[in-house]
Amino acid sequence: MKKSFASDNNSGVHPDILKAIEKANSGHFVSYGDDPYTDEAKNLFKEVFGEYTETFFVLTGTGANVCALQSFSDRFNAIICPETAHINVDECGAIEHALGVKLIDVETKDGKLTIDKIEKYLHFKGDQHHVQPKLISITQATEMGTVYTLKELEDLVQYAHNNDLKVHIDGARIANAAVALDCTLRSLTTDLGIDILSFGGTKNGMMIGEAVVFFEKEDVKYFPFIRKQNMQLISKMRYISAQFIPYIRDKLWYKNAKQANDMALLLYEKLYNLNPEMIVSRPEANALFVRIDKKIAEKMQNERFFYTWDEMEGIYRFMTSFDMEKEDIEDFVGFVASFF
Amino acid sequence: MKKSFASDNNSGVHPDILKAIEKANSGHFVSYGDDPYTDEAKNLFKEVFGEYTETFFVLTGTGANVCALQSFSDRFNAIICPETAHINVDECGAIEHALGVKLIDVETKDGKLTIDKIEKYLHFKGDQHHVQPKLISITQATEMGTVYTLKELEDLVQYAHNNDLKVHIDGARIANAAVALDCTLRSLTTDLGIDILSFGGTKNGMMIGEAVVFFEKEDVKYFPFIRKQNMQLISKMRYISAQFIPYIRDKLWYKNAKQANDMALLLYEKLYNLNPEMIVSRPEANALFVRIDKKIAEKMQNERFFYTWDEMEGIYRFMTSFDMEKEDIEDFVGFVASFF
Amino acid sequence: MKKSFASDNNSGVHPDILKAIEKANSGHFVSYGDDPYTDEAKNLFKEVFGEYTETFFVLTGTGANVCALQSFSDRFNAIICPETAHINVDECGAIEHALGVKLIDVETKDGKLTIDKIEKYLHFKGDQHHVQPKLISITQATEMGTVYTLKELEDLVQYAHNNDLKVHIDGARIANAAVALDCTLRSLTTDLGIDILSFGGTKNGMMIGEAVVFFEKEDVKYFPFIRKQNMQLISKMRYISAQFIPYIRDKLWYKNAKQANDMALLLYEKLYNLNPEMIVSRPEANALFVRIDKKIAEKMQNERFFYTWDEMEGIYRFMTSFDMEKEDIEDFVGFVASFF
Amino acid sequence: MKKSFASDNNSGVHPDILKAIEKANSGHFVSYGDDPYTDEAKNLFKEVFGEYTETFFVLTGTGANVCALQSFSDRFNAIICPETAHINVDECGAIEHALGVKLIDVETKDGKLTIDKIEKYLHFKGDQHHVQPKLISITQATEMGTVYTLKELEDLVQYAHNNDLKVHIDGARIANAAVALDCTLRSLTTDLGIDILSFGGTKNGMMIGEAVVFFEKEDVKYFPFIRKQNMQLISKMRYISAQFIPYIRDKLWYKNAKQANDMALLLYEKLYNLNPEMIVSRPEANALFVRIDKKIAEKMQNERFFYTWDEMEGIYRFMTSFDMEKEDIEDFVGFVASFF
User: Fold this and answer.
1) Do residues A177 and A140 make contact, with C-beta atoms less than 8 angstroms apart?
2) Strand order in the sheet with B196-200
3) Predicted local confidence at residue A1, as pLDDT
4) The sheet that has A210-214: what strands, in order across it?
5) Is A233 part of the contact surface with chain C (CB cutoff 8 Å)?
6) pLDDT tens column, B237-277
7) Do the chains contact at D92 and A76, CB–CB below 8 Å?
8) β B77-82/C287-291 pair status
């Protein structure tokens, strides 16, 4: 069976994750997270992010973002994000629906938020006519396949904190970012002073499960209520928690993301050799953006589906997954080549 | 390991469900429900509930209720439910939070809504000062362990429809109700004219997964948006759908609920023999309510946890699960007996 | 023209209020409350309630309640109130709509909340499955025409504060209550430790305008945003503020409420003489509840409208207004007498 | 006393409006709009906009917009508007707070929405991951002082309707637009197929009061509930309605707006003569945008307040009001001239 380059969530579940689920299926445990699997998984997160951090498990990426952002925003606040942000474009308005706050989305070319884009919205601070910016939300790796450098993040966090803004990372693909930057998860988050993190699992080899990581103990006080009322508290929690055990303990997060990133690079190299015109930019994580003539692209999509990213510009996205091998790339490149 | 009588969600996953998950873990599939497992599961629901019904899969019982109720309510509507309803008491205000509507909760002794309780709230219809009742929401089997008879449901539905109210069933334990009534799922829902159903899976041997069943095609039009913005759309949907395949096809829903109900009856009989004073009422589904002296109950709870139902009245709840056997009941009765 | 006994908002505007509006209509002033009329009115409130209090003007009673309650509640909180509360019954779900929180309404006979009714909802504190009670909201004078004594309020406030609950008074008719209790507004609020007050103007001789009074400076920090986003900030604020100047400075609040209360008592006495069976109870503020045969009541309502309070019980409400005189009462009693 | 060029809401109330309020202050009337003043005012709106239209009175411009937009949007919808829109910038997030929907704001230079800006957001239609655009909201005259031509509106409405989008006009200054275009209110709205209108009163000589105009009878069905739950239903409605009687019947809307527009033109001409460099563009309604050196502007603002429009670009706004005369303009021009 051909593997899909449409999205990293078209893949299945890593065998070790499945084994962990099976292992958790023994006997009765208290529900809603008061079980040994959840304890173990939460402790593993402390080892990764630091002893003062607190982690909670939720069900979907959108759920992680909503719960994380509710934790730091009041009803009259605004959240500043890039216009490409998943929370802005791909969550059917979940943030506005659940939180009632405004997303201030700023134009970007590469999916990255920059200080100069934030600045003009801070003039509104203190004026009763305007929503009050309280958070910035950035995605790492971004929806455009780019990765913020540690220096870029450091500057953003410093600017945000100087201006009384909290920093949220949508880390649906934070593993891919850490691999791309060749750094630890902690150096990407805790060490930079990030305030809250949506930590992705599903796109990188898990079945169902995301985590919300808090970096200050006092911030978590109301999170259990926030998670429950946003429909993210599952009764048989152990089956989510159990997945995170090998994912963190055995560094599956790293191995899976490394494989996906490597395969994206291989795909890039081979397509570049095929036709350098096609390439929009060298992939930084596991997404490659290519330029294809619309008619050809449509023929290709009919055979093997992938996403149109910018219909006007004729840009398409190929994503690699944790379970792809060299042969999958070669096969796909052959498929692409057959259209030219 | 001792099995828990605290709740039916303390149990694990039925082996056939786990096998179905494993089987689904092969290769790549389009995400968000456009996969063959989801197609198959949805078709199985049509076989059970009728060809005009449409089913969508969601993640939690609270999520199923929120999405179902959003589908039929506008922002100025109210939903009438018993005060004991899960949506009223146990969902941390998810309905009010996500929908912004009022729950009108009416007093009940046995968890059942009755026509005379609804009546007085219909005087408000058409008056701009009052929220407008649009739905009644009932739980079957109820949170009090009781089961509406088919006649009771029929009367409620007729009354509701005559008064321009839709009928929602919170069916977290609808399997236990069908077993208790010895009727088909269809005769409990479609045949009675129910408008929308939260169909439970997790409490009856599944891992994660609930379904929302619509009985009229035109009602589903906006459900995909509602599900997404309420954080109930999982990317790797096949792992939810796959669980429903044996659950429906192999009548696991029936077998599991039958076992749980039978064990509740066995527990009742044995405890009745031990001490008839202890029994509040004969169980109709898989919950048995008992009266225990507070001090004794606390000692018992320290050893094997179960829920206090009414602290004032000294009433406690024992729940049986799909995976309990005669020996589990005997063991638990022995445990209880040791305190007297 | 006959005066209406349907509600105290059927009356017009006191001539001194109208004069104050006319006086404010001279020249240009900065909008949204940064004008000398607003300053003066706010200072008058400080004189009444204490120098540490802060007052904001809003447009409607529902608006005052929503803004007041938003100031003290987070999205997962609940507000405990009597089932008869205006916020629960008469505001078309504004609280749930604007705040997304649950109202826990408790049964009462006389419209008063009591400690024993609150108690059972505090068991839920700290449990993630349940909304968290954060406020109690009481109405003074109540919707049932009764008035909490100072001792009753003192006990409620103490109980609430001991249990980490804030106390909100819906004071749409607080003037009538102060008159009834023969006490100052301060002794009814500030001195008892009330946390926030919706202070009514419209029902007692003003044209449009209510106030929200805070008793601790730090609580007001975000109120300007809350008022604006709840559509309660009027641009030409001076015309609201100007009304409060004679209302407070010249004790119009007292004179008007005294007249309304006195007339209610006179009405009661005369109807009692007519037929003691008709009387439900002696009025404490400006509402008199009477028992009339349904058929007769309908005939009366066709000629001069008044509200049915309890259709089942055949109870009706007569309200007196600030502008009623002895002759209005005699005329109305004559009207009533003509039906018997 | 000097008149303010900061905003048209710094002015007071037209004497005829005040007289209408005084006249309404006679005796008792049923509250909440069931009174003869409201009937008369509603009928006058029918005469202006057409016999099939229905008008409701509300309290604030933000309230009018929220209620109007709630009438046509479901919780998963989006509203497309210019980034300069009052609903987007100046209402403290009221739309997101009250409705939970997303505002998609598009960049504009002149405050006008254009078809090419809408187009890209329609690709999302039908995709469950994206909020569904349901309305466009435009402001006439715009916040940038510009006025859509009838042809521009006609094209926008046709495009919107062809794409299943409703059209809302924020008409806080629709009177100024009608004067600028020298057309009737009906030709600007009903005749173009507009779906709903926020009709402003306060900025053009009224005290408090806006209207929401519906153009199809079936659309109004739920508006009374929407108005009430959004805190826009005033009990003593006659005092709002009464203002609209001379405003519509005596064409005060026209006279007032004509005067304000004429004075803006006079101001423009005189400042152009003083220094043509200062002028950003010729005013179309009653707002003039000027370019001033920041330091000078600050000195001016200290003496007579006016708003900074674009701090980066050094652009400031002067607004004229209905009650300004030639002498006020000359005085203000003299004031400006004294700084150069």
Assistant:
1) yes
2) B54-58, B210-214, B196-200, B166-171, B132-139, B77-82, B102-106
3) 74
4) A54-58, A210-214, A196-200, A166-171, A132-139, A77-82, A102-106
5) yes
6) 999 999 999 999 999 999 999 999 999 999 999 999 999 99
7) yes
8) unpaired
Nearest to B132 among D70, D131, D225 (CB): D225
Cross-chain CB nearest to A233 (options C128, C226, C227): C128
Contact yes or no for D75 and B70 at CB 8 A: yes
Chain A residue closest to D89 (CA)?
A130
Rounded to 5 degrees, φ, ψ at C137 are -125, 120
pLDDT in tens, C66-84: 999 999 999 999 999 999 9
Largest alpha-carbon pair distance within chain C?
60
pLDDT band at A123 (very low <50, low <70, confident <90, very high): confident
* Side chain identity at residue C227, one-letter code: R
How sure is the predictor about A109, in pLDDT bands with cuts at 50, 70 and 90? confident
- Name the 3-class secondary structure at B52: coil
Of D132, D149, D133, which is closest to residue D141 (Cα–Cα)?
Answer: D149
**Distances from the Cα of D86 to the Cαs of D100, D172, D198, in angstroms?**
17, 10, 12
What would the pLDDT profile of B84-116 be if each residue is shown by its tens digit?
999 999 999 999 999 999 999 999 989 999 999
Average pLDDT, chain A: 97
In chain D, where are the structural domains located? 16-251, 253-337
Span C239-264, average pLDDT: 98
CA torsion angle A310 A311 A313 A319 (round to 10): 40
Chain D CA closest to residue A126: D92
Q: Between the CA of residue D136 and those of A87, C218, C260, D128, D286, what are the distances in Å?
A: 22, 40, 49, 20, 24
Sign of CA dihedral C113, C115, C120, C125: positive
Tell me the two tokens of residue D152: 């521009």
- Distance CA(C224)–CA(D252), nearest Å, equals 33
pLDDT at A7: 96
3-state SS of C65-90 is: HHHHHHHHCCCCEEEEEECCCHHHHC
- Nearest Cα neighbor of C256 from C6, C2, C17 is C17
Give B 70-129 residues with CB within 8 A of chain C.
75-76, 78, 89-93, 96-98, 100-103, 107, 120, 123, 128-129
The domain defined by B253-337 folds into Aspartate Aminotransferase, domain 1 (3.90.1150)
Direct distance between the N- and C-terminal alpha carbons of chain C, in angstroms, rounded to an integer: 24
Residues A63, A210: Cα–Cα separation, whole Å: 8
Give me D36's structure tokens.
């003869």
Q: Considering only alpha carbons, which residue of chain C is nearest residue D205?
A: C236
CA distances from A155 to A146, A170, D317 (A): 17, 18, 35
Please state, in angstroms and as integers, the Cα–Cα distance from residue A290 to each residue in A140, B194, B237, following that order.
21, 50, 28
D40-79 residues touching C, CB cutoff 8 A: 59-63, 66
End-to-end CA distance of chain A: 24
Q: Do D128 and B228 count as a contact with CB atoms less than 8 A apart?
A: yes
CB-facing half-sphere around the CA of A39: CA atoms within 13 A: 6
Hey, do B16-251 and B253-337 end up sharing a CATH topology, with the first three levels equal? Answer: no
Among all residues of chain B, which has the CA nearest to that of A210?
B234
Tell which of B1, B8, B17, B28 to mutate to test the A interface (max A CBs under 10 Å): B28
**Model pTM?**
0.97
For A31, which DSSP code? S
Distance (Å, whole) CA A242 – CA A23: 8
Estimate to the nearest angstrom the gap between the alpha carbon of D247 and the chain centroid: 15
User: What is the assigned CATH class of domain B16-251?
Assistant: alpha beta
Q: Which residues of B touch C130 (CB under 8 A)?
A: 89-90, 92
In this predicted structure, the answer to whether residue B1 has a pLDDT above a threshold of 80 is no
Residues 187-216 (B) with a CB less than 8 A from some CB of A: 202-203, 207-208
